[in-house]
Each structure stands twice: as C-alpha cells, then as structure tokens.
Write a structure and sequence with these properties.
The chain has a five-stranded antiparallel sheet, with helices on one face. By secondary structure, the chain is α+β, with helices and mostly antiparallel strands. The chain is built from five helices and five strands, in the order H-E-E-E-H-E-E-H-H-H.
Length: 142
C-alpha cells in the first residue's frame, strides 16, 4: 500500500513538521490555501476520521487545537478553520487553515454558504418536516 501520509509519519517522505503527539502528526500542507495551512494526520493508516478509535480522534483534534493556537499567535488570522478530509488522499486528515476576510479561502467558503442557504435543490432539506425527520433518524429530539 502506497500512502504518502504513512510515508511522512514513518519519516520516509519529507515534510515540515509543526507538532506531534504519540498518535498524530501536524505538518505544513505542500499545497497551502493560505500561509501556515497545516495538515494533522493520525499516525495509524485510517481513511476516514470517523473510523478512528476514540483515543485517536481525541489525539487528532487535540493536536489540531494546539496547532490552531499556534496559527493564531503566529499569523493573527480572523479565525482558524478546521475540516476533515480523507477522500483525495486516502488517509484521514484535518485541514487547519488560517482564514482572513476576503482571501481566496474565505471567498470559496462564502460561495459554499450561499449554495447551502440559497440552493433550490437543498430547499426540501431545510423544511421543518425534513429537519425533524433527520433528527429522529439520528436519535435526536431527546
């Protein structure tokens, strides 16, 4: 199995390490969306973050939290965005991205929010009936 993130974790591929714990590693993304954009990966090969053990998930998000604090101090962004990936590179990873009002990254997410809020295709999902059904399906409404 070839996995670039496993190679990075094992020291067989180069990276610019930012932080590390026993279960996770943070390093700079080689295709950053903004300066300081980091990836946080579990050290064990798992494709999707929701398939991690509870301990691994805690370590992954805990390390991302620490990296976000470093980004806030070093770059002074408006906020730090975190989102999970694992699809294009099939190894779970978190994007930890400093975000600034009006930059390319912010503009792209603004477009996504406009799609989310204004798309006729998604309108049915916003109805009170659809939201109640989804909550019930997920065990909500407790």
């Amino acid at each position: 199995m070839d996995c670039v993130f496993c190679d990075i974790v094992k020291g067989r591929a180069p990276c610019h390490r930012v932080a590390e714990s026993s279960l996770a590693l943070a390093f700079l993304d080689i295709h950053p969306l903004t300066e300081g954009h980091c990836l946080v990966v579990p050290k064990r090969h798992v494709v999707f973050w929701h398939d991690l053990s509870g301990e691994e998930c805690t370590a992954l998000f805990g390390l991302a939290h620490g990296v976000a604090g470093r980004l806030m101090r070093a770059y002074r962004p408006e906020f730090v965005s975190v989102y999970a990936r694992g699809r294009r590179v099939p190894h779970a990873h978190l994007f930890v991205v400093p975000a600034y009002t009006g930059d390319l990254y912010d503009r792209e997410f603004s477009r996504l929010e406009q799609l989310q809020e204004g798309s006729p295709e998604l309108e049915a999902l916003r109805s009170p009936r659809a939201l109640a059904a989804a909550a019930a399906r997920l065990g909500g409404g407790l």
